[in-house]
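User: Design a sequence. Structure:
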């Protein structure tokens, strides 16, 4: 191994030292697996019943966790939530269920500014004071093209009205660049 300790090399590879020694003897997989079926394995009838319930009119809009909870409220237990998920996945039934719109995983289009004052970004930052738990709030508007601060203000409380007033003042060119408001 060119000077590297085996234990360190095995750790980097994510394998156990015993595994490496076993591979040196024979590369054939020596595992034989379990010799018997699990006692709590779901039968085909139970799996069929789960599919029947999940596709029934009453539960067709429910997710597996909600199906199991609803059945438990009725005093019925067929299988665990994980078993419902596994059986529905095996039968290609684990997709968006319900009347709501399926979630979208599309990234939003990035905002691109080609010149100053096309797009502004704003944020509120907490400024700590000498009193524990009390803060001042910095409202800051910045041009994303030039990174220039186009307006800011500090207030004693956080309010949407303050940000609206500051934005309107910046748009009206009222020289609000630097202010402290209470």
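Assistant: Done.
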């Amino acid at each position: 191994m060119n000077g590297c300790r085996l234990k360190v090399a095995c750790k980097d590879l994510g394998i156990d030292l015993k595994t490496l020694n076993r591979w040196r003897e024979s590369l054939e997989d020596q595992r034989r697996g379990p010799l018997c079926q699990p006692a709590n394995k779901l039968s085909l009838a139970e799996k069929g019943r789960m599919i029947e319930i999940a596709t029934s009119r009453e539960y067709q809009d429910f997710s597996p966790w909600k199906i199991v909870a609803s059945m438990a409220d009725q005093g019925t237990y067929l299988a665990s939530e994980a078993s419902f998920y596994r059986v529905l996945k095996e039968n290609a039934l684990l997709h968006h269920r319900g009347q709501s719109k399926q979630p979208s995983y599309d990234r939003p289009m990035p905002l691109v500014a080609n010149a100053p004052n096309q797009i502004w970004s704003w944020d509120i930052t907490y400024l700590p004071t000498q009193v524990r738990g009390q803060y001042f709030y910095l409202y800051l508007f910045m041009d994303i093209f030039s990174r220039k601060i186009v307006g800011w203000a500090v207030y004693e409380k956080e309010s949407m009205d303050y940000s609206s007033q500051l934005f309107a003042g910046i748009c009206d060119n009222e020289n609000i660049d630097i202010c402290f408001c209470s």
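Residues 44-90 form one domain. The CA atoms of residues 128 and 135 lie 5 Å apart.
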